[in-house]
């Protein structure tokens, strides 16, 4: 009976690759032929092995026909992922001079004969083993045997109809050796999945996946980052904020500092993001950590994504400022993840944030800093678009987000690599200024969308007791410009302690 008759239109076949089924919104339509294309090294074989292993898990017989690799090479790939191919039929098609009595049960030898005989040998093999899932690796060898496009297309169509009658779900692998723009296989296949490998000037290579075509199925289009890890391919579905909503309380929460709450109006609001911008050493990270500790003391969970400095440095510095983070890590309320932007793709980072929110029930997220995140991206446009989607997602989950943006310079005209202040719900500006021959720090809220914030500029001091927020600074002008002018002799600043050594 033909595979189309009596089929369940909602039936799906899981691919065995984490994240790919989410991209496909449930998996593949069974009893169809699919094309998986990509250059060598992009992950085709690993994806195909995962497909057959998933079949074995659910009791479906699998068959791997390899025309390009030897069986030993294939088993070595499987072993590198801790896979075992027990219960999966592996057939290697080799040259006639390699065919011998030792290989009679597992080897065919049609690679030097006509294409028609090769295809007939595949038919006989499938009839004999009765598989439900089939992988054919790779089509480039069949293309070479065909020698002309018309003959090649006819034989691929013959394979497609044969597998359909046998109710086989088939992955045909192709390494893109055809002429550019040759879309014959795309028109024949029920679905097309493309894998790409991109080399950066520095850092690890990046891989990504795109579903080019999938008849009869809605899927998440565009590129999705992937990694090849021990255990197979992991796909990180592109974050679409509109698909994620949660009901949450919009009541503001304290930062733990009365002066900072006053600057913000009422504190930090769930579902909003705050940008802390300023030069190096002015106290951005310390202020973010202080806000995070207030949430941890309320019993909320937090996730800190650390791009810029070593974890040990952050821990030592916070402890010296009376903000020890270790007890919160030990209790499971806080997770600090140190990230190397040269090794982590943006999609993987977004997936890590999602896991923190959805699996660990995190209420506050800190990204330190956006400068390093920028350098993980191929262009500024991608940074802004992906950050917009990520912030929208966190907003709809009711998460308080704190983002740190380092600016170049110390005083005067400070610039950053990218301006994303328009994406932020709240913007805190931290500045150095000089008064009476001493360096001081100031903090001001220049924008908030959630409350009527204070317009004043307050002095910020960081010492061994932690953070102190002073009263609004009066008698000065030009503080935000970095060149303040004393207008009144009673301009009040925080008193400086004798022999004070204030860490930043």
Could you please describe the fold and organization of this structure?
This protein is an alpha/beta fold and 504 residues long. The protein folds into two domains: 20-238, Rossmann fold (3-Layer(aba) Sandwich); 243-429, Rossmann fold. Helix content is 29%, strand content 26%. The protein has 14 helices and 21 strands. A hairpin with a 2-residue loop joins strand 16 (426-435) and strand 17 (438-448). The longest helix has 17 residues, at 149-165. The model is unreliable at 1-6 and 95-112 (pLDDT under 50).
CATH architecture of the largest domain: 3-Layer(aba) Sandwich
Main sheet specs: 10 strands, mixed
The side-by-side strand order for the widest beta sheet comes to 4-3-2-5-6-1-7-8-9-10
Q: In DSSP terms, counting alpha (H) and pi (I) runs of 4 or more, how many helices?
A: 14
The percentage of residues in β strands lies in: 25-35%
The dominant shape is elongated
The CATH fourth-level homologous superfamily of the largest domain: P-loop containing nucleotide triphosphate hydrolases
Helix content, binned percent = 25-40%
Which structural class do the helices and strands define? alpha/beta
Question: Kindly state the mean pLDDT as a whole number?
Answer: 86
CATH topology of the largest domain: Rossmann fold
Radius of gyration: 30 Å
* Low-confidence runs: 1-6, 95-112
Number of E strands: 21
């Amino acid at each position: 009976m033909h595979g189309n008759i009596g089929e369940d239109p909602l039936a799906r076949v899981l691919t065995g690759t984490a994240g790919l089924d989410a991209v496909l919104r449930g998996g593949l339509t069974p009893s169809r032929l699919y094309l998986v294309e990509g250059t060598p090294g992009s992950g085709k074989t690993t994806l195909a092995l995962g497909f057959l292993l998933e079949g074995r898990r659910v009791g479906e017989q699998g068959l791997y026909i390899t025309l390009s690799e030897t069986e030993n090479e294939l088993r070595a790939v499987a072993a590198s992922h801790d896979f075992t191919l027990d219960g999966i039929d592996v057939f290697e098609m080799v040259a006639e001079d390699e065919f011998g009595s030792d290989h009679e049960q597992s080897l065919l030898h049609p690679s030097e004969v006509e294409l028609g005989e090769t295809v007939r040998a595949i038919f006989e093999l499938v009839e004999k083993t009765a598989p439900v899932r089939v992988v054919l690796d790779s089509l480039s060898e069949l293309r070479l045997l065909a020698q002309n496009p018309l003959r090649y297309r006819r034989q691929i169509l013959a394979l497609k109809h044969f597998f359909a009658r046998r109710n086989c779900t088939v992955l045909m692998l192709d390494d893109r050796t055809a002429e550019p723009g040759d879309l014959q296989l795309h028109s024949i296949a029920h679905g097309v999945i493309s894998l790409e490998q991109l080399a950066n000037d520095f850092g690890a290579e990046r891989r990504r996946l795109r579903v080019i075509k999938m008849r009869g199925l809605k899927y998440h289009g565009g590129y999705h980052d992937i990694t090849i890890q021990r255990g197979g391919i992991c796909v990180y579905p592109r974050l679409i904020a509109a698909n994620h909503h949660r009901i949450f309380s919009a009541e503001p929460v304290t930062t733990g500092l009365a002066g900072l709450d006053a600057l913000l109006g009422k504190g930090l609001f769930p579902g909003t993001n705050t940008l802390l911008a300023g030069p190096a050493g002015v106290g951005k990270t310390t202020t973010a950590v202080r806000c995070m500790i207030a949430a941890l003391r309320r019993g909320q969970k937090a996730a800190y994504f650390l791009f810029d400095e070593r974890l040990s440095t952050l821990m030592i510095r916070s402890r010296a400022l009376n903000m020890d983070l270790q007890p919160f890590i030990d209790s499971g309320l806080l997770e600090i993840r140190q990230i190397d932007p040269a090794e982590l793709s943006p999609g993987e980072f977004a997936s890590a944030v999602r896991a923190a929110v959805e699996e660990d029930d995190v209420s506050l997220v800190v990204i330190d800093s956006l400068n390093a995140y920028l350098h993980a991206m191929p262009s500024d446009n991608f940074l802004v678009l992906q950050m917009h989607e990520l912030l929208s997602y966190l907003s709809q989950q009711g998460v308080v987000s704190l983002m740190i943006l380092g600016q170049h310079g110390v005083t005067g005209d400070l610039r950053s690599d990218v301006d994303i202040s328009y994406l932020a719900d709240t913007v805190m500006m931290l500045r150095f200024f000089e008064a009476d021959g001493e360096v001081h720090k100031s903090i001001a809220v220049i924008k908030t969308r959630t409350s009527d914030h204070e317009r004043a500029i307050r002095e910020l001091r960081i010492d061994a007791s932690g953070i102190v927020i002073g009263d609004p600074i009066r008698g000065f002008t030009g503080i935000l410009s970095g060149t303040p002018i004393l207008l009144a002799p009673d301009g009040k600043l925080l008193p400086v302690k004798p022999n004070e050594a204030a860490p930043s």
